[in-house]
Design a protein that fits this description.
The protein has one domain. The protein contains twelve helices and two strands; from the N terminus they run αααααααββααααα. A two-stranded antiparallel ribbon has the order 1-2. Strand 1 and strand 2 form a beta hairpin. The N and C termini lie far apart (67 Å). 30% of the residues are buried.
C-alpha cells in the first residue's frame, strides 16, 4: 500500500540521508595496494620459513614442503629483502601521513589504530605463551602508526590555531619531519653495538645496528617471558632498543609520517588525484584495470590487522594436512 505525503510540512522533516561519498585518490590507493601485497608475501615467507619450523618437526614433512620452508627461511634473511622491507615501511608511513592530512578526523582514527595495536600486542603475548615461541609484539608497526597519527594531528591543530596559518604549518611539518628522521638515525648510531664502516652502514636503514633484547628465556624447561622496566619500554617505543618480531620505533618513522603530511599539504591541497585529474577514456581504462589494487589499497588497515592471523592459521592447517607432526 502506498501512502502519499499530503502535508507539505512533512517534507521538511530532518530525514536521514546517505553520507557523501569521499572521493578516493587513485595513486595513493594504488601504492598502498602494492605495499600491502608486498607485506603479505613477506609474512607468507615468515610463516612457512620461520613460524612453522618453530612449531612442527620439519624432519617429518614431505621433501617439497621442506624445500619450500628452507627457501622461505633463506629469503627472509636476504640483505636485499631486509632493506626493501624497511623501505616499504618508510613509504607506508609517508602514505599514511598523506592520508592523515586528507582524513576528516585523523585524531580519532589514530586513537582507533593505536587501540588495534594494543589488541595485537595482547594477542601476540597469549599466542607466545600458548605456543611457547617468540611471537611477542610490544610496539609494532600498527602501534607506531597510530601514535604517529595522534602526534601529527595534535601538532597540526596546535600550530594552525596558534599561528592562524596553514602555510606556516606546512613548513613547520617539513622541519619536524627532517628533525625526527635525523633524530631516529642518530639514535640508531648512538645505540649501535658494533662499529659502523663502509661495508655495514646500510644496516642503519633497517635498524640492525641496534641491539635486539631477548623477549623470553627458558628456566628449568619453562618458557618464561622477560618483563622489562619502564625505562627499557620507553627505549623500545622511541627506537633505541629492538624488541619482538614486529618492531617499529617511533623514530625515525614519526618523521616519515610528518613528511607525508607535508607532501599532502603541498600536493593535495585540492584533495584530488594528480594522475587522474581529467576524465578521459584512457584514464577510465587505467582506473578500471588497476581497480583490484586500488580496492586493496582502500582497505589497507583491515587487511593489515587480519591478514597475518589468517595466513598463520592457513599455514598451520596446511602442515597438519601434510601430516607434519607438532614438536
Amino acid at each position: 500500500m502506498e501512502i502519499a505525503l499530503i502535508d507539505s510540512h512533512l517534507s521538511a522533516l530532518p530525514l536521514r540521508t546517505a553520507k557523501k561519498r569521499v572521493k578516493r585518490i587513485f595513486e595513493i590507493d594504488l601504492l598502498r595496494g602494492i605495499l600491502i601485497l608486498l607485506m603479505v608475501v613477506d609474512h607468507i615467507a615468515y610463516d612457512i620459513g620461520i613460524l612453522a619450523p618453530s612449531l612442527f618437526a620439519m624432519s617429518g614433512a614431505p621433501q617439497a614442503l621442506q624445500d619450500l620452508s628452507t627457501w622461505c627461511y633463506n629469503y627472509w634473511f636476504e640483505a636485499w629483502r631486509i632493506n626493501l622491507r624497511y623501505g616499504v615501511i618508510a613509504l607506508f608511513f609517508i602514505l599514511s601521513g598523506i592520508s592523515t592530512y586528507l582524513s576528516r578526523n585523523s585524531l580519532k582514527r589514530g586513537m582507533l589504530i593505536l587501540g588495534f595495536g594494543a589488541i595485537i600486542s595482547s594477542f601476540s603475548y597469549l599466542a607466545s605463551m600458548i605456543l611457547e615461541t617468540d611471537m611477542f609484539i610490544f610496539f609494532g608497526i600498527i602501534s607506531c602508526l597510530g601514535l604517529a597519527m595522534i602526534i601529527y594531528s595534535c601538532f597540526r591543530q596546535f600550530i594552525i590555531i596558534t599561528t592562524g596559518s596553514k602555510i606556516i604549518w606546512r613548513y613547520v611539518s617539513l622541519y619536524l619531519a627532517l628533525l625526527f628522521i635525523g633524530v631516529g638515525y642518530w639514535m640508531r648510531i648512538e645505540a649501535a653495538t658494533r662499529d659502523i664502516d663502509a661495508q655495514n652502514w646500510w644496516l642503519l636503514v633497517n635498524g640492525r645496528l641496534t641491539s635486539m633484547i631477548p623477549s623470553h628465556r627458558v628456566v628449568n624447561g619453562v618458557f618464561t617471558p622477560i618483563r622489562y622496566g619502564f625505562g627499557t619500554k620507553v627505549d623500545i617505543i622511541l627506537g633505541r632498543l629492538w624488541f619482538g618480531v614486529d618492531w617499529a620505533g617511533l623514530f625515525p618513522y614519526l618523521g616519515y609520517a610528518f613528511l607525508g603530511g607535508f607532501l599532502g599539504e603541498l600536493l593535495y591541497s585540492k584533495k584530488k588525484s594528480l594522475l587522474l585529474y581529467k576524465s578521459s577514456p584512457v584514464a577510465t581504462g587505467v582506473e578500471k584495470a588497476l581497480r583490484p589494487l586500488t580496492f586493496i589499497g582502500s582497505k589497507t588497515i583491515y587487511i593489515y590487522l587480519l591478514h597475518q592471523f589468517v595466513l598463520a592459521l592457513l599455514t598451520f592447517i596446511v602442515f597438519l594436512i601434510f601430516g607434519v607432526p607438532l614438536k
